[in-house]
Amino acid sequence: MIRLVDIDPKDCTLDMADFRRQLNEHTRLVALCYASNAVGTINDVTEIARLAHASGALVFVDAVHLAPHAPIDVRALDCDFLACSPYKFFAPHMGALYGKREHLRRLKPYKVRPATEDAPERWETGTQNHEGLAGVTAAIEYLAELGRRVNPNAADVNIRKRRPALLSAMEAIRRYERHLVEPLIQGLLTIPGVTVYGITDPGRFDWRTPTVALRLAAHTPQELARLLGNQGMFTWAGNYYALNLTERLGVEREGGMLRLGLVHYNTVEEVARVVDALAACAIAG
Fold it and tell me: Which CA distances in Å does 174 have to 71, 72, 92, 168, 264?
């Protein structure tokens, strides 16, 4: 039986009291997103994993949305599995899965009979996408080079010592994106008729990514996306596969939400431009 944990619709955070109620000795697997791809909320994966393990459950984390915005430490999280799509951190469309060695050896994957029984290779049957893997390596090296630039002390080009540079890069990205999302949300909240979903208190921005979902009264998200697109600003409208969330918030039948997604190559000028465009739309009615 699959059980769903509720959220607090006021700020789109996970209802931890409900999670504790749902969790029991019969729970076998807790699956969750590290961060919401719709409203940017970051879940407390470390605490969730602690509670799940205390009940004897495994923990599977979908880290797709957090990957381009902050560093990830699977050991600190103590999750059993963590999956990510490298295209989220600027690589080609590939798939990546971390698993604790004990699980990768113990669990039996579906595979072709001639494939090796060695882990982790038995989880990757068939000829690998070598050109895609080369692109993933290049994206990782791009991030490492960014880390070396912001922190010369991490400038060791030895591939086995690349992690300090990557951590420096992701911390710099996190700080810079925080610099972008604060004026974005503050500006949006001054626009009459705008509703911003998710965490809007700057004091809690450590628990959100620079992904912002909103609605503007008298306009559908699709209308807003077209308006911004005609001005050279790319946004998303709908539910972005977060159907349970848009249904829970009561906006699915009204077209979902408009999503603004910032990354480290955006600028404060672009943030001001999108706020001005939405403010003009609100005035025009």
Answer: 8, 12, 22, 10, 8
